[in-house]
Write a structure and sequence with these properties.
Strand content: 25-35%
CATH topology of the largest domain: UDP N-Acetylglucosamine Acyltransferase, domain 1
Distance between the termini: 54 Å
Shape: globular
Strand order of the largest sheet: 7-10-13-16-19-22-24
Number of domains: 2
CATH class of the largest domain: Mainly Beta
Structural class: alpha/beta
Largest sheet: 7 strands, parallel
Helix content: 10-25%
Radius of gyration: 20 Å
Number of helices: 3
């Protein structure tokens, strides 16, 4: 794609590396560097680009010329990503948004700023997604549902129609929300959890744990034990 904008990525973790690949190969943004808070800098460059202290980021990248994306996951119920997103905006940088060309987003869906939507997401009609939301790969966001600010939805989640997801919530892989479910703020919904009724603010749902069989896999399949 033709590069018409410049971008600095906040962070240098695995998500930052993935964000670099996505913006580089599937957006109008040219990544020109990375920025990390000075106390956490472990290297001076990544992919041949500079890693600079966030406290003095303006010395390297002018806010008038460069946008940013804070590539951080759901640490502290998304507080870390939110803090750096707001701090960069306060410095005058414009937030970037990434929507994969491999995602299906219905034309009347509303997507806020500083969102990251990976491939194979289906965002149905009348969906509203707030600011600073991450949709990892392969989710279904059902019609008329609302995901509020600062949420993280990991892979292969089903959010059915007319659902609401409160701010700062994390939803784990393969979780399911039934129709007309309202999730409170600051929820942590573990992998493979099914939610069929509304939840209070601050709710935590642990994933189901598979029961370990009393026989080994080799014995079950009649294979010799080592």
């Amino acid at each position: 794609m033709i590069k018409t904008k410049r971008l600095v990525i906040l962070g240098d973790s695995a998500f930052a590396e993935v964000a670099y690949e996505c913006f580089t190969h599937d957006s109008e943004y040219e990544v020109v560097g990375f920025s990390v808070e000075s106390g956490y800098i472990k290297r001076n460059s990544l992919f041949g680009l500079p890693v600079v202290p966030f406290e003095t980021i303006e010395d390297n990248f002018c806010p008038r010329d460069v946008s940013f994306y804070a590539a951080l996951v759901y640490t502290q119920l998304n507080r870390l990503r939110t803090r750096l997103y707001l701090a960069a905006k306060a410095k005058g940088y414009a937030p970037a948004c990434y929507v994969s060309r491999g995602a299906f987003v219905w034309p009347n869906a509303k997507i806020g700023e500083h969102c990251f939507i990976f491939e194979d997401n289906t965002v149905q009609p009348f969906v509203e997604i707030g600011d600073n939301v991450v949709l990892w790969s392969g989710n279904h966001i059902g019609h008329h549902s609302v995901i509020h600010d600062n949420c993280f939805v990991s892979s292969h989640v089903v959010i059915s129609g007319f659902c609401t997801v409160g701010e700062n919530t994390f939803i784990g892989v393969n979780a399911t929300l039934a129709n007309n479910v309202n999730i409170g703020r600051d929820n942590w919904i573990g992998p493979a959890v099914t939610i069929s009724q509304g939840t209070a603010d601050g709710s935590l749902f642990k994933p189901p744990q598979a029961e370990l069989a009393r026989v080994s896999a080799r014995r079950f399949f009649k294979l010799p034990e080592d």
